[in-house]
Amino acid sequence: xPAAYGxxxxxxxxxxxxxxxxxxxxxxxxxxxxxxxxxLHVVFKGSDKFTxxxxxxxxxxxxNKAPYPETWDSIEASRYSSGEDIYVPLSHFHINFMxxxxxxxxxxxxxxxxxxLKVEIVSSLPEGMKLPEKLPTGTLALRCKxxxxxxxxxxxxxxxxxxxxxxxxxxxxxxxxxxxxxxxLLDEAANFTNVYKEMLNRGHxxxxxxxxxxxxxxxxxxxxxxxxxxKNMEVFKEKLGVESRYFRPPFGNVGARTRQRLAALIPDPxxxxxxVDIEDWLWAGSPTPEKQLEAFKRDFEKxxxxxxxxxxxxxxxxxxxxxxxLVKKSGKRIMRVDQCMEDPSAPPLK
Length: 350
Prior knowledge:
Layout: E1 3-5, E2 10-12, E3 20-24, E4 39-46, E5 51-56, E6 71-76, H1 77-80, E7 81-82, E8 85-89, E9 100-106, E10 114-122, E11 139-141, E12 149-155, H2 162-172, E13 177-180, H3 182-185, H4 192-201, E14 205-208, H5 222-240, E15 246-247, H6 256-265, E16 270-272, E17 276-277, H7 280-283, H8 291-301, E18 306-310, H9 314-318, H10 320-329, E19 333-335, H11 337-340
Helix pairs in contact: 5-6, 8-10
C-alpha cells in the first residue's frame, strides 16, 4: 500500500479494499491475556471507512509455518469512531490472547488517505464514552481443526474441464469442497447446475462464493454486500436444493462488514480462506506453469492444510493428481472442508 511516514504519523493511501497495513506486536507469541479488559485506542485523520483486525499467531508461534497468521477477528472502524478517536474493547476481538500477532488496518472502501497518529492500548475509556455492542463475525479459518487432515477448496472453473476434474476425484477416491458463484448456475450454456448436482451426488461439498465474484469489502454499501450473499443463497436453494454455512471470499478479501453481514444472514458461518495456494492465478498462463506445483509444495511443507485452486486452466488441472498424491504420501487424510473443521453437521468420514 502506498504510505508516507513521519515522526509522529503514518499516512496510508489505499487504492482498493485488498490493501492492508499491519503493525506487529511480536515476532513470536506474546501473552496479552492480562490486557483483555483494556482498549485499543487509535487516533486518526481522514475516512473511518475501514476495518481494524487483531490477528492470532499460529500454534507454533513461528512465522515460517503456515498459516501465518492463523486467524483474526475484525471490527468496523466507523462503528467505534468518535471524532478523530477510535476506542475498541480488546474483548471485541475473539482471538486467543495468549498468542496475538498484529493489529491490521485494511478493507478500505472509501477514497482518500487515512492518517494514523497513534495506535496504543489503554486501560480505560474517556468519561462518558459509550461503545457499540460487538457484532457477530463468524469463524475465519485457514487451518483444519481435525488432526492429520487436509482439505482442498476448489473455486469455480471452466465447464469444459468439470468432467475431467470429477473423474479424477473419483479415481483418487477423495472428497473436496467446491466454492461456487451463483451467476454461473444461472448460465444454462455453461451447465454448471448439472455439474454441481453431480458433485453433490458424489459426496462433495458445495459452498458459497458470492453471486458475481466481486471484492466484497470494496462494495460501497452493506446492501450491496447483502445482495451478493442473498442471491448466492437463493440460487443454491433454487438450482441445487442446498444451503451452506461455508463461504470463501473472492480473492480472499474479507473485512468486518463482509463478516458481520454474513453472520447476520447465516447463523455461525465459516469464512474459509487458505494456507496452501497453488498460485494458479500467477503461474497458470505463464511460461513457467510448473511453479504452481512448487508453490503448493512450499506451503504444504510449511504446514498448510486448506488449499485454494481453480479448474480454469489445463496446466493447473495437469497438476491436480500430483498434489493429491503429495498429500496422500504425507499420511494426511483428504476430506471436505466441513469434515476437516469437525463440523457435527458434516457427513461422517468413511
